[in-house]
């Protein structure tokens, strides 16, 4: 059995005992590093390059030890609050179901990566079974990205084709789509992991079986990257841009058949529903834009990284890999704050959940008065 570029990497710190090799597993599922210990023996300017590589790897270690604890401490409670707040909504729509699923998957992704971080930092025993179940972490993260893609698709249809939304985007159909996607991905990830993954004799290090190394490095690497990152991004980016265009157009007079449908239903409960739909759309559009920005470093890393025998070059890429880890892992922790800042409805439900009734009512009333004043000011400007 051999360890491959997508499973773990090594470095030899000069400031420690020379026989001590630090290991960090790449649970992201797509890291691509050669064995730096092998590169160390053939470096032309060994001392200078090792000093520089050691400095860079020290940065890598410092980031890897600290960053995820911060993200986990902030993100897990935030996702729990987001999930409970969404489920406390008076009306559960297909959109709120998808948002609740996204919050659940984000929370599970953080828990999985937290467990992986503890295992690596404390050098805990995994064994063959533990190594084979590593796929659950990247699987849950992949499903979270696809849940956001489904939300963007649902918002696109809701904004542009409201009649089709009512006809085709039922709660049942969306749940079936999520289950089918989750089951398909689970089969793919589980099959690859069970067949190709294993542990060394100590049970503390995971790797890819020798007969599957070529496939894992050259084929699965890109399949994994596509499922986890590229395909969701290719769905989210255009759908988000088109939805943003619709949000701006919806402020103009109604002319198209779709817009006329919206306009004719702007009365009573229909008007309230339309406002709620717009609020959810703005909230999730901001979440999608944030995800796109946070995933850019990962996209660059996957596409631009080329393995090198130069240990300094590898160390620089290792620093960049840690940076993209920080960004992509943060995408599982920020949605709650986006919802809170962008949606008055979400804030009201959160106040009702976490504050005493008297304080909650006061906060809700104050927010309503502020919104009414802003609406009146905007109307005055338009009349003027």
From TrEMBL:
Q: Does the keyword Membrane apply?
A: yes
Gene3D superfamilies, alphabetized: Rhodopsin 7-helix transmembrane proteins (1.20.1070.10)
- Please give the InterPro entries that the UniProt record associates with this protein: GPCR_Rhodpsn (IPR000276), GPCR_Rhodpsn_7TM (IPR017452)
As one GO molecular function, the record gives: G protein-coupled receptor activity
Membrane-spanning parts: 66-87, 99-121, 133-153, 174-199, 219-245, 280-303, 323-341
Q: Which GO terms describe its cellular component?
A: plasma membrane
Keywords from the UniProt entry: G-protein coupled receptor, Membrane, Receptor, Transducer, Transmembrane, Transmembrane helix
Where is it localised?
A: Membrane
Entries under CDD domains matching the protein: 7tm_classA_rhodopsin-like (cd00637)
Please give, as recorded in its UniProt entry, the membrane topology of this protein. Answer: Multi-pass membrane protein
Q: Which residues form the G-protein coupled receptors family 1 profile domain?
A: 78-339
Write down the PANTHER family for this protein, in alphabetical order: G-PROTEIN COUPLED RECEPTOR, G-PROTEIN COUPLED RECEPTORS FAMILY 1 PROFILE DOMAIN-CONTAINING PROTEIN
**Protein name per the record:** G-protein coupled receptors family 1 profile domain-containing protein
């Amino acid at each position: 059995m051999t360890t491959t570029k997508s499973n773990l990497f090594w470095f030899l710190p000069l400031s420690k005992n020379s026989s001590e090799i630090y290991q960090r597993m790449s649970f992201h599922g797509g890291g691509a590093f050669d064995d730096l210990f092998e590169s160390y023996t053939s470096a032309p300017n060994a001392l200078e390059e090792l000093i520089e590589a050691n400095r860079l790897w020290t940065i890598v270690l410092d980031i890897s030890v600290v960053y995820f604890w911060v993200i986990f401490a902030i993100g897990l409670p935030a996702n729990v609050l987001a999930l409970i707040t969404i489920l406390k909504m008076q009306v559960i729509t297909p959109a709120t179901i998808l948002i609740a699923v996204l919050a659940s998957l984000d929370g599970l992704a953080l828990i999985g990566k937290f467990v992986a971080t503890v295992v690596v930092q404390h050098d805990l025993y995994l064994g063959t079974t533990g190594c084979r179940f590593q796929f659950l972490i990247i699987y849950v993260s992949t499903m979270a990205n696809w849940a956001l893609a489904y939300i963007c698709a649902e918002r696109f249809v809701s904004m542009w084709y409201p009649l089709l939304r009512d006809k085709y985007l039922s709660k049942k159909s969306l749940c079936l789509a999520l289950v089918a996607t989750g089951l398909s991905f689970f089969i793919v990830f589980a099959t690859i992991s069970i067949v190709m993954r294993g542990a060394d004799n100590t049970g503390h290090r995971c790797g890819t079986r020798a007969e599957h190394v070529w496939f894992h490095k050259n084929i699965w690497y890109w399949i994994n990257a596509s499922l986890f990152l590229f395909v969701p991004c290719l769905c989210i980016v255009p759908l988000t841009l088109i939805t943003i265009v619709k949000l701006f157009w919806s402020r103009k007079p109604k002319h198209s058949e779709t817009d006329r449908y919206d306009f004719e239903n702007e009365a009573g409960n229909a008007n309230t529903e339309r406002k709620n739909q717009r609020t959810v759309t703005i909230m999730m559009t901001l979440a999608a834009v944030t995800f796109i920005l946070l995933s850019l470093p990962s996209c660059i890393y996957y596409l631009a990284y080329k393995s090198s025998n130069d240990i300094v070059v590898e160390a620089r890429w290792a620093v960049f890999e840690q940076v993209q880890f920080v960004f992509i892992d943060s995408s599982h922790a920020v949605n709650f704050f986006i919802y809170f800042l962008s949606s008055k409805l979400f804030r009201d439900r959160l106040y009702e959940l976490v504050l005493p009734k008297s304080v909650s009512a006061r906060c809700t009333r104050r927010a309503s008065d502020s919104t009414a004043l802003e609406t009146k000011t905007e109307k005055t400007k338009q009349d003027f």
